[in-house]
Write a structure and sequence with these properties.
101 residues, mainly alpha, two-stranded antiparallel ribbon, 4 helices, globular
């Protein structure tokens, strides 16, 4: 189901891929340093524990965990979240956890 339509919380559909989502987020972050920090902190929080021990040796999220998060958020483990949902979550996370930098 990768790259197909996925339901969103609002009942709309989002067609996309993880690389496209990342590209859109990077583009938005370039023009907003505050957003860039929020997204970096969120990505770091989602990293796979012990990421330096296994290839590709990058702080990427665990696939099983990410599938579970997408299932709990969108009722579809293959969902790719809309850009605005990721931005809203990153800002909410900073405000809720009282992260200030």
């Amino acid at each position: 189901m990768h790259g197909e339509q996925s339901p969103t919380a609002a009942g709309q559909t989002y067609r996309g891929s993880w690389p496209a989502l990342v590209a859109k987020l990077v583009t938005r972050a370039i023009f907003s340093p505050r957003l860039a920090l929020d997204l970096i902190a969120t990505a770091w929080a989602f990293r796979r524990r012990g990421w330096w021990r296994r290839a590709p040796f990058l702080p990427l999220p665990d696939r099983a965990y990410l599938r579970w998060r997408m299932y709990t958020a969108y009722a579809d483990e293959a969902a790719v979240p809309p850009v605005e949902d990721v931005i809203r979550f990153a800002r909410w996370r900073r405000e809720t956890m009282d992260l200030s930098w």
